[in-house]
Amino acid sequence: MERPSFGVDVIGDIHGQLAALESLVEELGYDADGSHPEDRRLLFVGDLVDRGPASYEVSRWVADRCAEGRALCLLGNHELNLVEWRAGRTKPKASNRATIEQIESRPERWDPLLAFFETLPLAVELPGLRVTHAVWHQGCFDALAPALGSPGPIPVHADWAPYVRLHAAYAAGAFREGMPTERFSGQWEKALEVFVKGYEHRAAEPFTDNDGVVRDHVRAQWWLPERDEVPRDVRIVFGHYWNMPPVPRVHDAFVPPHPSGHPRLRAWLEGSHASVTGAGRRRVADGAMAVCVDFNGVTRVGERACVGAYRYPESEVVWVCR
C-alpha cells in the first residue's frame, strides 16, 4: 500500500462542539472551508452529534467537506443510534434525545444529514495506521469484510477509496446484503456494534456507573497488550473512550486509563481536568500502538470542550480546549 499524496489529520469525537472544532482546524492550519495550503485532509472518527449545542452545524460542515473530498467521516455510535432510530429499529436514547427533538422539529433540514450518516464507512487503513471509531476487533472485521469490503451504493470520494477497509453498512435505510446481524461469537454485541461501541467483559466486582446503575460488566480495555483479539502490527487511532489531553506530571499517555462508566474514570477526570486549557501539541512515542483522540469527555466535569487530532504521518497529537 502506498502512502497517500496528502497528509491526514484524524479528528476525534466532536459531539456538537462547533466552536472547538473551528479552533482545532485553525490550529491545524486549515481555512474555514476545510482547505489546507499543503493539501492535507481531515478524517473524522465519528460522533459528530449529541451533548453539545451545535449537532446540526457540525454535521453540516463535515458533510460538506466530505462531498468536496477534503474530508472523510467514519460511523460513530451516536450516528448509528440516529440511523437505527430513523429506521424504527431502536428507541431514542438519553444521549440523543435532544438531537431527535431537533430532527422532529425540522426534519427537512436533517433528512440529508441522516442520509449522509448511512454512507459513513467503518474502517480506514493507511500505511502504518488503522483508524476506526471504537475498536479494530479482528474477529469482527473478518465477519464484516465479506459484506462491507466493497463500496456501497454511494461510494466514498475517489481520493479516499484506496484506504477504506470497511465501507458503509447501509443501503437505502437497510443493512447491506450479507451483513451479519446476529450477536458476534463470544460478545454481547453484534459485529457492527463492536466496531463503533466497543465490547464488554465481566467486571472484577459490581460497580455503580455514572447514572447510578449497578453493573457487573465493564467495557474492555482492549488497548492493553494482553487483549489479543486486536491486531498489534500497526498503530490504531480511535475515539469513543474518554481521554484527556496530556497533563504534565499527571497524564502523559494517549489512551484512557479506565473504560467509560467506570467510577475510577470519573475520579481521574475530576482530578486532572482543571489543568487543561488552550491548545497543545505532543509527539506520540514510537512504541505507542493505541492512540485515543476522544477528548470531549472533559465536558462532563468542566465547562470547556476539548477536541483533538492525530497528525499523520507526523505522529503528533494536537488538541484545543475552549
Task: Describe the model.
The chain is α/β, with parallel strands linked by helices. It is 26% helix and 21% strand. It has 8 helices and 15 strands. The chain has helices at 18-27, 55-68, 77-86, 97-105, 107-118, 138-148, 191-197, 263-272, and strands spanning 8-11, 41-44, 71-73, 123-126, 129-132, 164-166, 170-171, 174-175, 200-208, 214-219, 235-238, 278-283, 290-292, 306-312, 316-321. The strands form 4 sheets. The chain has a 6-stranded mixed β-sheet with strand order 3-2-1-14-15-12. The radius of gyration is 18 Å and the shape is globular. It starts with 7 loop residues before the first strand and ends with a strand. The model has no long low-confidence stretch (mean pLDDT 89).
Condensed summary:
This protein is of the alpha/beta class and 322 residues long. Helix content is 26%, strand content 21%. It has helices at 18-27, 55-68, 77-86, 97-105, 107-118, 138-148, 191-197, 263-272; strands at 8-11, 41-44, 71-73, 123-126, 129-132, 164-166, 170-171, 174-175, 200-208, 214-219, 235-238, 278-283, 290-292, 306-312, 316-321.
Layout of helices and strands, plus pairs?
Elements lengths: L7 E4 L6 H10 L13 E4 L10 H14 L2 E3 L3 H10 L10 H9 L1 H12 L4 E4 L2 E4 L5 H11 L15 E3 L3 E2 L2 E2 L15 H7 L2 E9 L5 E6 L15 E4 L24 H10 L5 E6 L6 E3 L13 E7 L3 E6 L1
Parallel strand pairs: 1-2, 2-3, 5-11, 11-13
Antiparallel strand pairs: 1-14, 4-5, 4-6, 7-8, 9-10, 12-15, 14-15
